[in-house]
Amino acid sequence: MGSLMKYQPHVDFSAQAIAFRALQHLYIRLQDGELEEYEHLPIVVFAAFSIEAYINSIGFRKVNFWNQYERRSWRKKIEILHANVGATPNWNADPLQLATQLFEIRDRLAHGKPESVCGPLCNEYNEAQSALMVQCLKPQWFSVITKEWLLGTNDRVCKLMAYLGSLYRLPDNDFTDHSIGHVTEHES
Fold this sequence. Notes:
Number of helices: 7
Largest sheet: 2 strands, antiparallel
Low-confidence stretches: none
Shape: elongated
Strand order of the largest sheet: 1-2
Order of helices and strands: EHHHHHHHE
Radius of gyration: 22 Å
Mean pLDDT: 91
Structural class: mainly alpha
Strand content: 5-15%
Number of strands: 2
Helix content: 40-55%
């Protein structure tokens, strides 16, 4: 009796593309007016997740011993990606300036410490109480997160990730590929 063939599907999974896909769905909901103001924050977080996941994806594929660098800061990893190809990062202009903005917000959230925010001086107690009730008092770093600003970051995030991939001559849309599948044969 001959052996029977068995087949097994495999997927090379890309975490950054899953985070990026979730991010794109958030952008669509934001553009369509489906998100409340307090729901804007996940866009910043998923943008940072997507960027850092893609940094690691490039690193694991293109930089020897990336596992030694993986736990370093996002900024240091971008510097390593640049140094590995003889390039110098420009932190003062896009696309890297956006990374600085997004990670500053993400880091303040992840490593947050209580801070006091003072509102305007009011002539009436009820006026001051009203300012508290509508929650309009925000730290400066948090007040930048508006619908308009977020909508402007979508294209910038894509350009940033395409730029990082271009350092290694990866296709412009490499960061969107979430899995590559294939089937292997096994004799039983």
